[in-house]
Amino acid sequence: MNQEQFDKGIEGMREMSMSAREKAAMLKSIFDAPVESPYVRLFNISFFASRQAMAMAFSLLLVLFTGTAAYAAERSVPGDALYLIKTEVFEPIVGRFKLKPENQLAWEAEKIERRISEVEKLVSENKLDEEKVRGLEKKIEKASAAFAIVAERAASSTASTTAAHKVKVEKLKNDLIEKIGEKKEESAKRLKDAAVKGLDIKDGKRESAKGNK
Amino acid sequence: MAVMSGEPIKDQFTSFYEKESDALFRFCYWRVTNRELALELAQESFARLWAKMAEGAQMDNQRAFLYVVARHLIIDWYRKGKSGSLEALSEEGERPFEPMDQNAHIDIEVGSEARRVAEKINDLPEQYRDVVYMRFVEDLRPREISQILKISTNAVSVRITRGLEELRRISGIDKK
Fold it and tell me: Can you give the pLDDT at residue B110?
């Protein structure tokens, strides 16, 4: 091949082109082809990505919140905001996991022990009032009823364990009632003392007023 | 990624298409030497560009995008018989062109000189093939070629010189 042939060849290559009809048909085909909407794409990627991120963040927050709430609720006593969560949410959940009758009995007994601890804490902090006493009494009744049901269910399979738990629960129940009773007596005494003191002050004031006259 | 309104993009694309369609078709044709196939490859390349533009993608160099797509499609076409997955081939990235298919149909309208030169260009090593084609057939400047191939202008100039020397050697053209 010489230079002239080469140059001619290059010219020939440059002449290769589409016809006007081919060009128009190609452009029409390009525009007619379905093009994915940018909004669909945004929805597909960003929306789900953000939803996924949101779900993960929410799960993390839920775990953190639940953990913190569980810890705080476990230390709560009647009158605290989280006490209902402790007795109406977490304790029933724990109870659900006690599948064997003897475990259920032990759990019911433990619940009464927990109530005793709460009473002790309230007494030590001098926070046990009439309303809380009524609430605790209701819970003891409820626990006793639950215990009776569980004990009946367990009686046939584990008679000895059930009997032992019954004795333990009865003792715990009596302890609790006793503690509440003591507290009631204390409260009554305190009220009486306060009333007497109030009368004394009143009398003292009256006498001093007379003296002044 | 900015989303623009439809009509200005369509006009912009149409204008670009009018300007570049023949060159891209030619580029495809001289690689596959089959008119119908070249038309398909060019159309697919433009369709992908249009899809990008329609979704609002910001493109620095539309011509570079077009040629990259076309090159990948040509590679896929050459390798189609050996691999079932064209998508996988495209994703593997840029690879050298295969030698021209000897059994491919040569358009009867094309002159014998053009065909011979095209064959010689296709016989060039991969690093020279595109720059020589773009410089001598499309008459692009080294700067424009560097933007399309995303290599430095200096590297383009070097490849043009060496590629031309190699083309002369394999074509048997004496230096003047």
Answer: 60
Torsions phi, psi of A128, nearest 5?
-80, 110
CA distance B116 to A20: 27
Give the chain A residue whose CA is nearest to the CA of B17. A27
pLDDT score for B112 = 81
Q: How many CA atoms lie within 13 A of B72 on its CB side?
A: 20
Which of the 8 DSSP states describes residue A34?
A: -
| Residue B91 pLDDT greater than 60, yes or no | no
B101 phi, psi to nearest 5 deg: -65, 115
- The ipTM (two decimal places) reads 0.74
Measured from the Cβ of residue A37, the count of other Cβ atoms closer than 10 Å reads 13
Structure tokens at A3: 């230079």
Nearest CA to B26 among A54, A100, A22, A180?
A: A22
What CA–CA distance (Å, rounded) separates B105 from A18? 17
Between chains, do A35 and B54 touch, taking CB under 8 Å as contact?
A: yes
A163, two tokens: 């009997």
Residues of B with CB under 8 A from a CB of A: 1, 3, 10, 14, 17-18, 21-22, 25-26, 29-30, 39, 42-43, 46-47, 50-51, 54-56, 107, 110-111, 113-118, 120, 136-139, 171-174, 176
Helix or strand (DSSP H, E) at A202: helix A159-212
The DSSP secondary-structure symbol of B123 reads H
